[in-house]
Design a protein that fits this description.
single chain; about 300 residues; alpha/beta; Rossmann fold; N-(1-d-carboxylethyl)-l-norvaline Dehydrogenase, domain 2; 3 domains; 8-stranded mixed sheet; 10 helices; 8 strands
């Protein structure tokens, strides 16, 4: 490959590797915002055309400024790909993994120029959800993080930058904390799956859309919150092990909508229609929120504080 720009220039040329649902969505998100976008896939000859995206079967001759890997979630195939990319791409190319669970330190171990490797974790549908987690491997050059975050902003995304790696990153850690407690209550027969989803859809979700998770505590008042935390936290689901009922359900082959049963019984439901309906509603909600939250009234925007008593 031949280099097209310097290491400090804004990213304009992107290569996405892997043409699954996530990879296609990532490629579309860049192409829709004017980036020069290639999508590398072994199925290049059989994929339907994607507006603004060149689907290729091998590495393009002109080097991208950013590569985002979105191949199956297995350590060794990803590592083999990164070695290939490092050998083929000039030193100015940034190389990111869309992994959601693999350890970035192990994933990039042995690479010659680890400063240019990082995590870029998208959420499904990747061309709709605005949030992307940009994650340091522990060896990533801070300039590489910021250059990638800048590209994400220009691609219509809202990047969250994690300055060091942590298992699950931010979003999945928050999700699994809530889900772990939910599964615990469901397994004990205290609530039903419908109860949990009803709380998420009619209380937690709407309120978090407006004031987030942390800001709401300031608005409600921290004195009561602190007292509640002392009483509730010690009684939460024990940490250290995944929920046995959920693991048994997966072991039995009940994997959700795709197999017909999971937490819900989807027998008789049209899986494609369910997914299309969900995506359509999400698009409508995000459009509404973008319009509604376009500007805060004067005197209503606070600044975040560092509350750590011990820094580091």
């Amino acid at each position: 490959m031949t280099a097209s720009t310097s290491a400090s220039a804004p990213i304009r040329r992107v290569l996405v590797v892997g043409a699954g649902v996530m990879g296609i969505g990532i490629a579309k998100s860049f192409a829709d915002h004017g980036f020069d976008t290639d999508l590398l896939s072994r199925r290049a000859g059989s994929l339907a055309p994607i507006k603004g995206v060149r689907v290729v079967g091998d590495l393009p001759p002109e080097a991208p400024e950013l590569v985002i890997e979105s191949v199956p979630e297995e350590m060794e195939p990803k590592r083999a790909l990164f070695h290939r990319l490092e050998a083929a791409c000039p030193a100015t190319t940034l190389i990111a993994s869309n992994t959601s669970s693999l350890d970035l330190g192990r994933l990039f171990a042995g690479m010659k120029h680890r400063g240019r490797f990082l995590g870029a974790h998208y959420f499904q549908p990747a061309d709709v959800i605005p949030l992307v987690e940009i994650v340091s491997s522990g060896s990533t050059d801070p300039a590489a993080l910021e250059r990638t975050a800048d590209a994400m902003r220009r691609a219509g995304k809202d990047p969250i930058v994690l300055s060091r790696p942590i298992n699950g990153f931010l979003v999945n850690r928050l999700q699994h904390a809530i889900l772990h407690e939910s599964y615990y209550l469901i397994s004990r027969g205290i609530v039903t799956v419908e109860d949990v989803d009803n709380v998420a859809k009619t209380m937690l979700g709407p309120r978090m859309c407006i004031t987030g998770l942390i800001q709401q505590k300031d608005i409600s008042g921290l004195a009561v919150h602190a007292l509640a935390q002392r009483e509730i936290v010690p009684t939460l689901a024990p940490p250290g092990a995944a929920n046995a009922d959920v693991q048994a359900m997966i072991a039995a082959g009940n994997l959700g909508l795709g197999t017909g049963k999971g937490f819900y019984d989807w027998t008789g439901c049209d899986a494609k229609a369910v997914r299309e309906q969900s995506s359509g509603r999400l698009n409508a909600l995000l459009a509404f929120l973008k319009q509604t939250m376009a500007g805060d009234r004067p005197g209503t925007r606070p600044k975040g504080r560092d509350i750590r008593t011990k820094k580091g």
